[in-house]
Every structure is written in structure tokens, then in C-alpha cells.
Amino acid sequence: MKKIDIHCHTTNRRVEGVSCEHPTLEELAKKMRKHNVEKTVLLATYFPHKGTGISNFRLLNWINNNPKFEMFGSLDFDHFYYQGMNELEELAEKELIKGVKIYTCYQHIDLKSNKLRDVINLAEKHFLPVMFHVGYSYSCMSKTGKVAYTSPVSPANLDFLAKENPKVNFIFSHMGKPFFNEMVKAAKTNFNVYTDSSGLIDFDDKKEEMDKTVSEIKTYLNECGPGKLLFGTDFPVQTYEHSVYLIDKAMKGFSIEDKKKVYYENAGRLLKL
């Protein structure tokens, strides 16, 4: 079944402690062919606490009009905010981005600030979805001993944004892990809130964690419907093999039409593909 990966990362440098130490575009293309992924959304990254990331125009240059890839732009709220806003406006006007990613938990972001409001207004103006990192940061979830940069942001913290901005579609990533019940409630009570199946497990998680995650995905689908879930990997954090396994296992007994929604159609509609 063809797929769109709504949530993916790439870099040209070596990365330790993840499923693929060299997650280049070339390596991604191989994974996509193997798993019938027709299009992957790459996320610009801004991690000021680590001094790392892949900026908007750097990522755009790497993609270089490759039709296999789309991108979500982003920005650094802590530094160079206005420069970031100008970049997003320019990229949106030229239709070079398909959405905006907000790195809550990795940055200090006041959810009720004029800065965030302006980003959401920009997204509304250009009919772009807004994706939030929800839950713990990867460094907090991993076994490195690092801690999150800020307190975790849960779906309940973001609920008011969905209600105040009904013309904007929101993606609360990672099924809100570990705030799963809040994610279910947010998706059920807001027609414009979605989540993705990215980054739910580490590549070396045990079977017990896999089974628990499958059960949560199935519960979410039964409560919110297959129209509210997007297939995502968070590669290289989560493998393509595990990402497909989780959805296939959770959707056992669902119709082909429902599986098409999760794997392809929901993302295609939000991204206007």
C-alpha cells in the first residue's frame, strides 16, 4: 500500500543512538522504495539548546526539487525569531513549504505569546498545517541520561489553540506520548486536530513496549476514527520497519479504505497533494 511519511528527519552527519547512523536523503530514498513510501515530509530543525539543527534553506537546498520530498519549515523562537518569520513568509509565498513545525519542549515558547500567534496567522494565510512536538523530548525519552530542555507540552496545553484557530489544521505529534488520553480527547473534540504515529518507540524497544503501543494506536483509531491519524516515522529515531508494523498490527480487521486514510489519504488532504 502506498504511503506518505508525514514526519521525518535527515542530516549529512553521523548520528549516534538512533536506528540509522547516516540518515542521508540517499538512505531515505532506499527505505522509501522498500516500504512503498511515495512521499516523505522532511522537517527543518532548530535545537538552540544544543546548537544544532537543519535550517530552512539548507534543507530546501538538499531536497533540490526532488519530487519524493516535501518539507515543513520552522524557526528558532529563542534567537533570530524575526529572521525566521521572514524566511517562513518567503518560503510560503513561493509554495516551497507544506507546513510549519513548532519545537515545543526543545525551545522556550510561550503558547499565549504574540510570536506564536503570528506564526499561526501566517499558516492560516497560506493554508498550511501547524505541527507541534508534543510530549517528552527525544533526549528525555532516550537512554543517554540527558533531560528535556523545557517542561513537556501535552495535547491539553495546546487545545485552546485549535479552538481559537478553526481555519488551521494542527498536528500534535507522537500521539501525545506519554499523554495518550489527552491526545484522544483533543482529537475527538477538535475537528482540526490530528496526530501522527511517529517516534512512538525506540529502535531497540522490547516486545512489551511494542504491544502496548499497538494497543494505544488501536484505541485511538476506535475512539477518534482513521481519519484522524497520519502515518509517520520520526526516522531515524523510529525505523520504517517498526512504523509499518505498528500500523499494520493496530489496523488488523480495519477495511482497506480505512488503511488508505492512515497511510496516504489523510496526509494527502492536509498537504493538498
Quickly describe the structure.
This protein is an alpha/beta fold and 273 residues long. It has 10 helices and 10 strands.
Average pLDDT for all residues? 90
Helix share of residues?
40-55%
- Cross-sheet strand order for the largest sheet: 1-2-5-6-7-8-9-10
Q: How many H/I helical runs?
A: 10
CATH architecture: Alpha-Beta Barrel
β-strand percent reads 5-15%
C-alpha termini separation: 17 Å
- Oligomeric nature of the chains: single chain
User: Globular, elongated, flat, extended or rod-shaped: what is the shape?
Assistant: globular
CATH class: Alpha Beta
| Uncertain parts | 140-148
Instruction: Could you tell me the CATH topology label.
Output: TIM Barrel
Describe the main β-sheet briefly: 8 strands, parallel
Helix and strand layout, with pairings?
Elements: E1 3-8, H1 25-34, E2 37-43, E3 45-47, E4 52-54, H2 56-63, E5 69-73, H3 81-93, E6 99-102, H4 114-125, E7 130-132, H5 138-141, H6 155-164, E8 170-172, H7 180-189, E9 193-196, H8 207-224, E10 229-230, H9 240-250, H10 256-271
Parallel strand pairs: 1-2, 2-5, 5-6, 6-7, 7-8, 8-9, 9-10
Antiparallel strand pairs: 3-4
Helix pairs in contact: 3-4, 7-8, 8-9
Structure description:
The protein is an alpha/beta fold. 41% of the residues lie in helices and 15% in strands. β8, α7 and β9 (193-196) form a beta-alpha-beta unit. α7 runs parallel beside α8 (207-224). The longest helix is centred in the last third of the chain and has 18 residues, at 207-224. The protein is globular and about 50 Å long.
